[in-house]
Structures are given as C-alpha cells and as structure tokens.
Amino acid sequence: AGIDKVSIRMFEANLQDNLDALMRELKTRDAFQPKPLRRVLIPKGKGKMRPLGIPAVRDRIAQEVLRLLLSPIFEPLFHENSFGFRPGRNCHQALERVLGLWHEGYRVVLDADIQGFFDNIPHLGLWPVWQMWWPMEISLDWWNVFYGPG
Which residues form the Reverse transcriptase domain (predicted)? Predict the structure, then answer.
C-alpha cells in the first residue's frame, strides 16, 4: 500500500468504480496528480539501508498505462545489449551475451553500479530527445506528472 494505505485488495474490492474514477482523472487535463510516495528503508546488505518509494495503487496503475503506451515506441530505440528493466530480457540473457562476445574475441568488461543513478539522471537535458520521439496522441503532461520536465 502507498501513502493512502489502500492495498491492491482494497482497490480491487471496488475495482470498476476505482478504475472509472482514475480514467476520468487521466482524461481530464491537470486533474490527475500522483500521491506522495510512501518512504521506507529496506536492508541492502552489509548493514546498509536502501530508501524505497512506494506509490499508491492507483498511481501504479497510471504508470503501467503510460508504460504500455510508450513501450512499443521506445523499446525499438534501445541498444541491443541493454538488458536491465526491459520486457522479455533478464540477467541470464545478459550473461549469455557477455559469453557470446567473449567467444567473438572481446576481452574487456565494464562492471558499474552507479549509486543513485536514476536520481541523478539530468532529465531536463534529455527532454529535447524525449520530445522528438514522443507520440503526439499522448500528452507530455503525463510524463511531467510522474517525472517532471527536469
């Protein structure tokens, strides 16, 4: 459950009404505003904790709608050797690709874990690129609602 304490089960108990209300908000310009994230700390290992933001169920549904609309547009643009957080791709396939490259004669691997990577992406600098590929029928306001223009 997110900050509103509405669980998936609670949302499902009145599913059609909840989905109808969400759809009305999403269709009305400036009506949809995601709720603040519920912040929790989860163990990362070696005594460290990782901050985690848990969105409300309705916000997760809205994000999934956006992902379903945008994936067919942006997926073909991503690099073939990109395996993280991609549909139909996993770490086993990434390892197979690394082994394949090894057999082709490549001998260098860059292993990088950039701390707080997503939080440090210069979203404003990427904005012109996003706009170039963004489908006209989907309002950029949707992206701004979740991620902002910068």
Answer: 42-131
CA-CA distances (angstroms) from residue 140 to 29, 74, 107, 132, 145? Answer: 11, 15, 42, 11, 9
Q: In the prediction, which pLDDT does 150 show? A: 45
Residue-wise pLDDT for 1-58, tens only, equals 999 999 999 999 999 999 999 999 888 877 788 999 999 999 988 888 988 999 999 9
Q: Does residue 117 sit within a domain?
A: yes
Residue 135: count of CB within 10 angstroms of its CB: 12
Domain containing 24: what range?
Answer: 8-77+112-147
**106 in a domain, yes or no?**
no
Residue spans of beta strands (DSSP E) within the chain: 38-45, 48-54
pTM of the model: 0.72
Domain count, the chain: 1
Query: Using an 8 Å Cβ cutoff, are 63 and 27 in contact?
Result: no
